[in-house]
UniProtKB/TrEMBL annotation:
Pfam families to which the protein is assigned, alphabetical: Y_phosphatase (PF00102)
CDD domains for this protein: PTPc (cd00047)
The Tyrosine-protein phosphatase domain, residue ranges: 1-144
Protein name stated in the entry: Uncharacterized protein
Residues annotated as signal peptide: none
Domain named Tyrosine specific protein phosphatases: residues: 62-135
Entry-linked PANTHER family: RECEPTOR-TYPE TYROSINE-PROTEIN PHOSPHATASE, TYROSINE-PROTEIN PHOSPHATASE LAR
SMART domains: PTPc (SM00194), PTPc_motif (SM00404)
The organism's place on the tree of life at top rank: Eukaryota
Single annotated GO MF: protein tyrosine phosphatase activity
Length: 181
């Protein structure tokens, strides 16, 4: 928002409440008003990520995903998390996949990343655009499992995922290079 001045679009007033530059991301909090309704929106911007690329380290990225998960407000005053990047496919797909997998691993001993990407592409084409992005998702989950992560008193570990060399995992997932063309 230029100069942090409130912006009016029709009946909607948007004003910036606060902004914080953190090491991995920027957090802006906006107040949205429509007539007598008011909502506070948290906008997380992971700024260590180039278009069509991948973040430097998986641990940095899943720490970002966990920060967003922790910031969710109750459904009474909140709503869904909205995820978007420049084209709404590559980086958005990585975020959604990693977020889904980190939540899913709590109750499951395995993860089918390949099938998850195919399922996501049923709803939006080109989710996860490159082989490098696919590998990055795997690396995020592998790092999460290897390190173990404490959240709300639970330690998440998995003994099956990440025990095979990467090339064997691709074979198990029937990985095809044309998936990313």
């Amino acid at each position: 928002m230029p100069g942090d001045a409130p912006v009016i679009n029709g009946n909607i007033l948007v004003s910036k409440h606060s902004e914080r530059d953190l090491s991995l991301y920027k957090l802006c909090i906006f107040d949205i008003k429509l007539n007598n309704e008011h909502r506070r929106i948290k906008h997380f911007w992971f700024n260590k990520w180039s278009d069509a690329g991948c973040p430097e380290k998986p641990v940095m990225f899943f720490d970002f995903v966990k920060a967003v998960q922790k910031a969710k407000t109750p459904a009474v005053n909140g709503g869904p998390i909205v995820v978007h990047c420049g084209d709404g496919a590559g980086r958005t797909g990585i975020y959604i996949a990693v977020d889904h997998l980190l939540q899913n691993i709590r109750d499951h001993d395995d993860a089918d990343i390949y099938q998850l990407i195919l399922d996501m592409r049923e709803h939006r084409c080109n989710m996860v655009q490159t082989e490098a992005q696919f590998v990055f998702i795997y690396d995020c989950l592998k790092a999460f499992v290897k390190v173990g992560h404490v959240d709300d008193g639970h330690l998440y570990q998995n003994t099956k995922l990440g025990t095979e060399p990467l090339e064997h995992t691709y074979e198990a997932l029937n990985f095809r290079r044309n998936l990313f063309k």
